[in-house]
Amino acid sequence: MSKTNGYSLKKLLLTFLFCLLVNTAWAHSITDAALVGTENLQTAQTITWKTDAGEKTFLELRAEGQHPEKMQEFSPKKHLLFTEPGVVQCNAVFLTGLQPDTLYHYRIGSKGKNGMEWGISSTFHTAKAKTTSFSFLVFGDSQNNSITTSAYTAWGKTCENAYAAHPDAKFFINLGDMVEEGQNYPHWTGWFAGAKNVIDKIPAYPMTGNHESYVPTGHVPVPVEPECWEAQWPTPANGPADLKGTAYSFDYGSVHFSVLNTQEKEYLRFRSSILPEQREWLEKDLAASSQPWKIVLGHKPFFSISASARHAAPEIAETFGPLIEKYQADLVLNGHEHAIARSDSYPLYYIAGQSGGKTPRNVVQKEPYVFLYNNNNEPNYLYITVTPAEIRIDCIGQAGNLLDSYTLRKPVQQKTA
After folding, report:
1. What is the pLDDT of residue 146?
2. Could you give the C-alpha distances from 245 to 21, 104, 226, in angstroms and in order?
3. Is residue 188 left, alpha or beta, with left meaning phi > 0 and alpha meaning psi from -120 to 50?
4. pTM above 0.90?
C-alpha cells in the first residue's frame, strides 16, 4: 500500500468515527479566529474560526457607535475537516454591505449542552472608499524547520513584532510555505497560535506553497491536493475555475494584486497542468484592471537564486513573464528560497526571505537580482508603503533591523517628436 493510500484510509476512518460520535456532547472550543481578505475590503470582510464538529456557533457584529446590545448575529458556513488528530469544524462568515472606513466590533460564541461560551472579541476597520496611500506587511515562508514539532515560535515572534512596529498596516500577505507539512493539522494549530492577536485585527491574504501539499509521511514529501489549506482559507473565488481559492485577485486602494498558484510540479502528481488556465486567467485579470499599480504574487520565484536546480521553477517565468511585461506589472513578490533577493529593474522582482524558522538554502546571486542576503536563520518581513508616486519596500529583520530598502517608481515615458 502506498503512503498516499494509507493517508486516504485514515481519512475514511475519521469519517466513520465522526458519524458515530457526532451526536455526543462535545467540549466547547473556539479557536483560530482570523480575518481573511476579500476582493474589496471597503464593504466586505470574511471572518473564520474553528470549533469541535457539531458545535452550534455564531458571530455577532456591530459598528462603532451602535449599542453593544444591538449586535447583529450571523450563522457561519461550515465545513468539516477530517484530520489525523480528529474532526475539525471550519466556520466562515462572509460579511457584505459594510460601510467603508468604519470600525466594527465582533465576537464569536457557541451554544451547546453545557451552555454558552464566548470566544474571541475583537475589532476590524474597513478600507476607505478612496485611498491612494497605504501600507501592508508581507511575510515569506513562515514554516518551521521540523516535521515532528508543531511549534511556530519564530513565526509568531516575527508576526507580532512586525505588527507592533507597523500598526498602520492594513493587511498582511503570506507568500506560501506557511507550514512545514500542509496536511499535518497540528502545524496549522501552531501557525494560528503564532498569528494570534494580529490576524484577528487585520486581514490575511494567504497563498499555497509546495509544502501546503505535503502529507505527514516522514522525510519524503508526497504532494496531494492541499485540502487543509483550502478548508481554512476562503479567499476570493474569482480565479480560474479549477483553482479558485489558490489563485485569485483583489484591489486595495490604487493597487491591483494578482495571486498565482506556482505549484506546477506538485500538482502534476495528482492532476493536469495548472499553468494554461492560469495564464488565460492572468491575462484577462491584468487587462481588466485600471489600477495605477499592479503587483503579482506567487510562492515560487520567476527567477531562482538556489544553487540547486531542483528548487528552480523556470516554467513560471516562461508562462507568466510575457504577461508581466505586456501589462506592465510593477512588482513581482515571491518566497520559496528562504533568502532575500532584489532586482534593480522594472518590473521589480523581490524574493521576500523567510519569516519562520526554516534553515537557509545554499543560494547564489543570479540575474536579474543585484541584491542578495542570506539571512542565516534570522527571520524577516517586508513593510511596503504605497503612494501615488512610488512604492517603498523596507526589508526588516525580526529584531527590527533594516536589511534593505528600495523605492520603486514608474519609468519615465519618453516623448516622441
Report:
1. 84
2. 31, 26, 11
3. alpha
4. yes
CA-wise closest residue to 329 among 367, 299, 289? 289
| Helix, strand, coil percent content, the chain, rounded in steps of 5 | 20, 35, 45
Asked whether 357 and 377 are in contact (CB, 8 A), the reply is yes
Mean pLDDT of 172-182: 96
CB atoms within 10 A of CB 1: 7
Report which residue type is found at 153. T
Strand ranges, E, within 190-268: 204-205, 248-252, 255-259
What local confidence, expressed as pLDDT, does residue 138 receive? 98
Asked if 143 contacts 178 with a C-beta cutoff of 8 angstroms, the reply is yes
Structure confidence by residue, pLDDT tens digits, 240-296: 999 989 999 999 999 999 999 999 999 999 999 999 999 999 999 999 999 999 999
Rounded CA separation 46/34 (Å): 8
The one-letter code for the residue type at 45 is Q
Asked if residue 144 lies in contact with residue 190, where contact means CB atoms within 8 angstroms, the answer is yes
Q: How far apart, in whole angstroms, are the C-alpha atoms of residue 380 and residue 141?
A: 10
Q: What is the CA radius of gyration of the chain?
A: 21
Cis peptide bond upstream of 368, omega within 30: yes
Rounded Cα gap, residues 408 and 29, in angstroms? 46
Q: How many helices (H) and strands (E) does the chain have?
A: 7, 21
The reported pLDDT for the residue numbered 67 is 92
CB 350 within 8 A of CB 332: yes
Give the whole-angstrom CA distance, residue 251 versus residue 218: 40
C-alpha grid cell for residue 302?
520567476
Specify which residues 342 forms β-bridges with.
350, 371
The reported pLDDT for the residue numbered 218 is 59
- H/E element holding 366? none
Going by pLDDT thresholds of 50, 70 and 90, the confidence category of residue 5 is: very low
From CA 414, how far away is CA 417, in angstroms rounded? 10
Per the prediction, the chain carries an average pLDDT of 90
Mean pLDDT of 302-312: 88
Q: For 380, how many CA atoms within 13 A lie in the half-sphere containing its CB?
A: 28
| Residue carrying the nine cell digits 485585527 | 201
Say if residues 382 and 398 touch (Cβ distance below 8 Å): no
Calpha distance 18→80 (Å, rounded): 10
The residues, any chain, with a CB within 8 Å of residue 8's CB and separated by 6 or more, are: none
